[in-house]
Amino acid sequence: MMTVEQRTLVINDTTLRDGEQSAGVAFTLDEKLAIARGLDAIGVPEMEIGIPAMGGEERDGIRAVAALGLGARLLVWSRMCAEDLFLCRGLGAHMVNLSIPVSDQQIVNKLGMDRRGVLAAIHRHVPQVRELGLEVCVGGEDASRADPDFLLQVLEAAQTAGARRFRFADTVGVMEPFGVLENIRRLRAATDLELEMHAHDDLGLATANTLAAALAGVTHVNTTVNGLGERAGNAALEEVVVCLQQLYRFELAIDLQRLPVLSRQVEHASGRTVSWQKSLVGEGAFTHEAGIHVDGLLKDPLNYQGVNPKELGRQHRLVLGKHSGTRAVVEAYSRLGLPLTRREAGLVLRRLRKFVARTKRPPACRDLRMLYRELYS
Questions:
Q1: Alpha-carbon distance 222 to 314, whole Å?
Q2: Cα–Cα distance for residue pair 318/333, rounded to 1 Å
Q3: With CB atoms counted within 10 Å of each terminal CB, which end of the chain scores lower, N or C?
Q4: Could you tell me if residue 244 is inside a domain?
Q5: Is 52 in the same domain as 195?
């Protein structure tokens, strides 16, 4: 564990924007409002809540979230063009993430522009949003593939134009933590703008990249509940928060006890089932079967506890299976009020291993009682 001074960082959760952009996901208004309340209740200080240019129904949803009177600051997402940004007016948001590609790949092949055109757009459109009474985050789409020297020009243009923040977006999820650390440190040394990290999980590194950005000096990080998001998703709120607090002593004021409930809420609303082994919030995250682990946990939970499940309102769960030992069998039957000797536990274990191989699941209480009765049949 690294020892660093205690510090703060702002979570800007984008479950209601980038999370909902996950293919096939569409929240109803009631679901959107419930998720917004849930994020606010656990202490998330900022939320990105929609894309005004999507249409009147989307804007009504944004207004409805704003009308909840949440403690969180609210952001909306917009392309950096006049026809989109003026739709952000009067929705109750505090800031607009004004997004524009900054890699040559996307500048040329998506926008049909050049670098000078991007800088000119920043100088033209940032003041327009400021005149609407809204703060601006310049969203650097595909920043991870941008020329580093051009990124410095983008930051200078953003600050000169009146932006408050720059979002470094790893749009296609191709970065790794060491590269993130180097890139963000370079930007941090060149500007006093707020810096925000937006990571995608295409290589399974979104959380790691977000942690690297935090150590490099960003002021804000994007997350989504359960890592929901386009393609492979975004950095998972639960992972980022627990890691920043436990590994690096960031003070985030997030109520970890409520995270599992929020996770299930988003799982239901999105229709995206959380993996059984998903870190921290998956059903199996604190479930143990292997005999050596169960024996160690029964002696002292710290023997096999990296994260205390109680911090997330959860507890260790012991299940019986192919890799269980006799001590776990004795313990499980003791909890059912059925004492076993070690010899009897060994006999049950043989039957139990055949049971799980056949059923592909741990035995329930009724199954354990059945196996117990078989001892004397």
A1: 25
A2: 12
A3: C
A4: yes
A5: yes
Backbone φ and ψ for 272, nearest 5 degrees, come out as -105, 105
Quote the crossing angle between the two packed helices 326-335 and 342-359, to the nearest 10°: 90
Total domains, the chain: 2
Using DSSP's 3-state secondary structure scheme, residue 372 falls into helix
Q: Provide φ and ψ at 338, rounded to 5°.
A: -125, 90
277 inside domain: no
In a domain? residue 318: yes
Q: Which residues contact 333 (CB under 8 A, 6 or more apart)?
A: 339, 340, 345, 348, 368, 372
Helix/strand/coil for 196:
strand
Q: What is the pTM of this model?
A: 0.90
What is the separation of C-alpha 182 from the centre of its chain, rounded to a whole number of angstroms? Answer: 23
Instruction: Give the model's confidence band at 6: pLDDT under 50 very low, under 70 low, under 90 confident, else very high.
Output: low
The span from the CA of 312 to the CA of 42, in Å, is 12
Contacts for 338 with CB less than 8 Å, ≥ 6 apart: 368, 369, 372
CA 66 – CA 295 distance, rounded (Å): 51
The 3-state secondary structure of 17-74, one letter per residue: HHHCCCCCCCCCHHHHHHHHHHHHHCCCCEEECCCHHHCHHHHHHHHHHHCCCCCCEE
Give the model confidence (pLDDT) of 307-350 as tens digits.
Answer: 998 999 988 877 788 888 888 888 888 889 998 998 988 998 89
Out of 270, 303, 333, pick the residue that ends a domain. Answer: 270
Q: Would you say residue 108 lies in a domain?
A: yes
Rounded Cα distance between 26 and 20, Å, is 6
Count of helices and strands (H, E) across the chain: 14, 12
